[in-house]
Amino acid sequence: MLNTTFSILVWFLAALTFALSIAAPNGYSVGTTIIFLLSFGLFFLKPRWLELHKEDKMLFYVFALYACAMFGFVYLDGWHTRELDRPSRFILALPVLLLLLRSAGRENLLWFGTVIGAIAAFVLAIYERKVLGLSRANGSEHPIMFGNIGMMLGLISFASATYFLSNKRYVWLMLAILGGLCGIGASVLSASRGGWVALPLIGFFLLWQSRFLLGKKLVWGVCIVSILLVFIAVLIPQTGIKDRVGQAVHDVVEYDQGVDKDSSVGLRFEMWKAALSMFAESPLVGVGEYGSVAVKEKLIAEGAVSAKVLTHSHAHNEFINALGLTGIIGFIFLLAVYLIPLQLFLKKMRQYPDNWNIRAYAIAGALVPMCYMDFGLSQVMFSHNIGVMMYAFPIVYFWAAVRWAERKELAR
Predict the structure, then answer these.
(1) Co-location of 34 and 116 in the same domain
(2) Is residue 154 in a domain?
């Protein structure tokens, strides 16, 4: 086990990942870069430090195999080495996992980082919308990425609220609830509709999983307040929710009637159609990102899809994009990198139904793949640096937090 001062530093850097993630330019890379560099120290330690529990190995191997598989697809697509960057982040997260598993005692800093990050994101979104006059808050990222990560920070802040409630830390409980609302607010102000789908689905998951902690009356109270807040948010013109939903419906109708294929929603349908054509052409390993250009040009020449499909490198759907570019093999690896971490966290939730010092971290960890599977319906999160970093590293952080919380419980 590492000394206390060093452990505090390591967990502080992990928390910093959340705190700065979208509130500062490339904020997500500050804590992750430093903690990765510190993890090199592991290679100078005794070999026994690299020993892992069976469950730790599952997470370790799925990340390593996913990255290696993506490297293989880059090779098949012409070995454009710049494309190695994003999948390599899954490899970079592995020594960080080893480091955190040896850095005890301050995993609760993750909660503070998440809450601060969600509040900071909302403050930045308000500034961009009200002071700068932007139509969509974006920080230094694409508005969709800003909104989706903001939503995830908000939902994890609600998970942190269960931890603070169970430990009777009421000041931080109020701040965690505020952080949850702020994360959702940042998503709303980004006008990124795809992330909004996560709110009712994962919100229900959170309520259901914490129903015994909250009690029936409080659960019903949260449900009623949540519904009222949604109605208020929809009715307030400044949020833009009503207009964005109305525009989506309008786009679908016009696409169905063949009036406009190049609207926001219509173009997504065209990209999905193109990706499915790529999958039909090469179902096993796909056509590759660079190989997809020739397929798109052919489809455009045939009048099968809009010419604007060429302006996008991915299909704005993680699952369909994986099928088109990497085939069924890549699709299976994508599901594995989602479902295996999710299964590990869900197992811990079942194992500790009443211990919120452990269960809260497991819920937060489960929220990461759950959010990404939802976001992936309308965006290819792994095509962006922030998308890969804010998936691989938070999963590693919360898994290490669960494992340390378990050890503390066993030591009592």
Answers:
(1) yes
(2) yes
- Contacts for 78 with CB less than 8 Å, ≥ 6 apart: 288, 290, 291
Please indicate, yes or no, whether residues 255 and 232 belong to a single structural domain of this protein. no
Helix (H, G, I), strand (E, B) or coil at 130: helix
Specify whether 173 is located in the same domain as 126: yes
pLDDT confidence of residue 19: 98
Tokens 């997260």 -> residue: 93
Residue ranges in 236-291 assigned as alpha helix (H): 241-256, 264-281
| 404 and 374 part of one domain | yes
Asked if 137 contacts 186 with a C-beta cutoff of 8 angstroms, the reply is yes
Give pLDDT tens digits for 1-48: 667 888 999 999 999 999 999 999 999 999 999 999 998 877 666 545
For residues 26 and 111, membership in a common domain is answered with: yes
Clarify whether residues 350 and 287 are in a common domain: no
The tally of domains found in the chain comes to 2
The candidate with the shortest Cα–Cα distance to 328, out of 380, 280, 398, 261, is: 280
Closest to 287 in 3D by CA, of 318, 316, 314, 307:
314
Domain containing 163: what range?
4-41+52-237+343-411
pLDDT digits (tens, 9 = 90+) for 253-282: 888 888 788 888 899 999 999 999 999 999
pLDDT one-digit tens code per residue, 68-90: 999 999 999 999 999 999 999 99
Say if 331 falls within a structural domain: no
Question: What is the distance in angstroms between the CA of the first residue and the CA of the last residue of the chain?
Answer: 18
| Per-residue pLDDT, 267 | 94
Other beta carbons within 10 Å of 195: 29
Q: Distance between CA 367 and CA 362 in Å, rounded?
A: 9
